[in-house]
Amino acid sequence: MRIDSAGWTHVGRRAHNEDAWTSRADLGLFVVADGMGGYAGGEVASRCVVDTFSGLCERLVRDPEATWPHCRHPQLSHEEDLLLNCTRLAQRAVRARRQGPLHRMGSTVVALALGAQGAAVAHVGDSRLYRLRAGCLESLTRDHSILEEMRQAGVKMASRADSPYGHLITRALGTDSAEPTVRRLDVQAGDVYLLCSDGLYEPLGPERLAARLGEGAPEGLAERLVEEAYELGGRDNITAVLVSVRE
C-alpha cells in the first residue's frame, strides 16, 4: 500500500504554539502532541515527545538488532510494542526535564504506526485519532479525561465545550499518570486517518470532519482543516496530521 501524509499547525488565538507534530511516511510514524504547563513548559514537552518517538523509530530502522528501551511483549504486534516503547521512553524524557521553570510541564500524545505487520495507535490524554472508511467517521481513541470517565460511569454530561470538566485530562506524559492506551488496528486501502489536538476537533465537530476528510489528498487538506477550525473561532493551538492509505 502507498501512504500519503501531511501535517499543519496554527497558534490559534494563543500567544504561543505548544503543539508539536511529525509525519514520517518513511518510518510509518505519525504523531501529534499537545503540551501543557505554559509557554516554556508546554512547547518543550510536546517537542520532547515528538522527538523521542522519531528518534527511537529512526534508531530501530538503522539497526534492527538494537536493544529496545523496555522489554518486548510477545502478545503485542510489532507496531503496538513499538508505540508502547516510544510512549514510555517519552515519559522518561519529559520527566527528566521537569526542573526549574519546567517543573509542571507535560504533554498529551496520539501516535499512529503503520508497518508490515499492520497498524497500531497509542494515546495519552485528549489528542485523538479518527478514521474515515467508506464515508463513515470513527474515533479510534477515547479521551483520558474526567468528562469521559463520567460518561463511562453512566453520568449524563453536557458537551465537552459546555462542561466545566471538558478540558480536565486524567493522563499526560510527564505526570504520575501517563500509561498509554495502545490498540491494534486493521488497515484498508482508502482509509483516511486524522491525528489532531483538541484545538481542531472541538470547533469542527464530527459531522464537519467526516465531510472534509473525503475532499482530497492530505497535502493541502491538513492546512484547510486547520484554517477552517481557526475561522470557526478556535482559540487553542490547532494541529492536524492526515494519512491516506492507497493501493
UniProtKB/TrEMBL annotation:
Residues 1-245 form the PPM-type phosphatase domain. Gene3D superfamilies: PPM-type phosphatase domain. GO terms for molecular function: protein serine/threonine phosphatase activity. It holds the Pfam family PP2C_2. InterPro entries: PP2C, PPM-type-like_dom_sf, PPM-type_phosphatase-like_dom. It comes from the Bacteria. SUPFAM superfamilies: PP2C-like (SSF81606). CDD domains: PP2Cc (cd00143). PANTHER family: PROTEIN PHOSPHATASE. This is Serine/threonine protein phosphatase.
